[in-house]
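Lecture notes, unit on protein representations.

Consider one protein chain, 161 amino acids long.
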Amino acid sequence: MDHVIQLKVNGVIHKVLVRSSETLLEVLRTKLGLTGTKRGCDVGDCGACTVLINGKSMSSCLVLAVDAQGKEIITIEGLAGEDNLHPLQQAFIEHGAIQCGYCTPGMILTAKALLDENPNPTDDEIRQGMAGNLCRCTGYTKIFEAIKAAAKEMRKKGGKK
């Protein structure tokens, strides 16, 4: 069955025709053209499709689009300001945490949710907070360094950004 739904993505409301079984991941990529959200495992294990829903990191492959109505959805495309990158995006670049880039959007959004909840996490808290995101390129060290650097920068600027 098809439904017309409204999704608020990156601050913009979109009216979209979706099937009842269509995931948020499918709608973001194919109907809204937001391809920064990556398709990975389709079972919520890899983190490549992570988006923020009401500030919490969620695997968009596990969320039905119809269930995302009325919620604030942020994708990697909505994280940066008009003139500058988010501190996490900048730190990932500066610390060489990107590599192939496939996992990067999900990593950054998961890290944002972590830092919004805990602005000064320990190494163990970062490891635990990032546990659902897989990377085959970096070995995670550079990712964790980038998260710590961004946390420091975000604390200097007064918290959430």
